[in-house]
Amino acid sequence: MNVTVEIEHRATDPQRHDWVCRSCHTHSDLAAMRELLYVCPQCGYHARIGARERIRQLTDPGSFTELWSGVKTLDPLGFVDLQTYPERVLEAQGKTGLAEAIVTGTATIADTACVLAVMDFGFMGGSMGSVVGEKLWRSAELAAGEHLPLVAVCSSGGARMQEGILSLMQMAKTSCAVDLITDAGVQFIALLVDPCTGGVVASFATLADICIAEPGAQLYFSGPRVIQQTTREALPAGFGSAERNLELGHLDAVVPRADLRDKLGAYLRLLKGGEGPERGETRGPAGRGTGRLAEAALDRAQAVAAYARRALVRGDRESPDEAQDAPA
Ligand SMILES: [Zn+2]
Questions:
Q1: β-sheet bridge partners, residue 118
Q2: I want to staple 204 with a disulfide (CB 3.0 to 4.6 A). Which of 138, 142, 174, 233 is the partner?
Q3: Ligand 1 midpoint to CA 20 (Å)
């Protein structure tokens, strides 16, 4: 079977001086687009951006300190398709300038300190292999230990096939990482950006206390084409879009890119207990939110994480009620 893959130019490609909107095909000056955060001035299309650019946009200037950049992937299966797995990793590293499909560290967002994990779809489709899982785990451990909120920017095509079952195991590992921070009373915010699919959307990305997305982002487990070919049924309009996910209650908000830094800062302060900087006061160390919204969000996330953990231990046949009653 022949498979055609459409590869888009990265918005940050240094070889290009103009930028072409993928949606309305308008040409814009690349330098101007950097100022516009790579959002099309004509139609509002939010272009895909790399992890470094995302960090530039979200964090306060100079506040990001990268951690665990030296964690590298092995080739446990000796996987070969048209290239060996190590060759593919090297190619992705050369293309993106990143060591892996996730960049992790600490930063401040609108003056609020956090642990930050940012995925990059340009690195092997943002696939979640062992290194992505490990760096997400370490980020959660640091967040729990230092009592800092965790912010994850999630963009992924799903599991990394070159790592087989080891890649799928990262879904359980990262879900447990969310438990780790929930048990520590630390907050977790996920920002889902285009595209966020497969094993990432089915694990840590949707277990956050607050789950938001960019306009137009495609968010689903399986793509519409795969579902349509399998079920032979037409899918509803807007299937998988951020806006449709918001309508269905899977998201808390859809936030335009220009508002993201301020909005994330507001959420971080809300989850800390609702104090705004405008009140000029804080109430001790960050802990369980004292605001009702924050408590409701945390309770909901904890219930989901608890169910996921039990379901993993007991298999997938029980109903949610049975799993709820079972010992952990
Ligand atoms: Zn456009």
A1: 103, 153
A2: 174
A3: 8
Q: Is 51 exposed, middle or buried (CB count within 10 Å of its CB: 0-12, 13-18, 19+)? A: buried
Ligand 1: distance of its center to the CA of 28 in Å? 9
Closest CA to 94 of 86, 105, 103: 86
Q: Is 266:291 a contact under the CB 8 Å cutoff?
A: no
What is the sign of the dihedral through the CA atoms of 95, 96, 97 and 98? negative
Residue 221 identity (one-letter amino acid): F
How close is the Cα of 47 to the center of ligand 1, in Å? 9
> Is the distance from CB of 143 to CB of 183 less than 8 angstroms?
no
pLDDT digits (tens, 9 = 90+) for 133-170: 999 999 999 999 999 999 999 999 999 999 999 999 99
**What pLDDT is stored for residue 191 in this prediction?**
98
Fold held by 49-276+287-325: 2-enoyl-CoA Hydratase; Chain A, domain 1 (3.90.226)
pTM strictly above 0.85: no
Indicate if the pLDDT at residue 315 is higher than 50. no
pLDDT tens, position by position, 244-300: 999 999 999 999 999 999 999 999 998 877 554 443 333 333 444 445 555 665 666
Give me ligand 1 centre to Cα 287, in Å. Answer: 42
* Backbone angles phi and psi of 305, in degrees to 5: -65, -40
Q: Where are the domains of the chain?
A: 1-47, 49-276+287-325
CA 204 to ligand 1 center in whole angstroms: 31
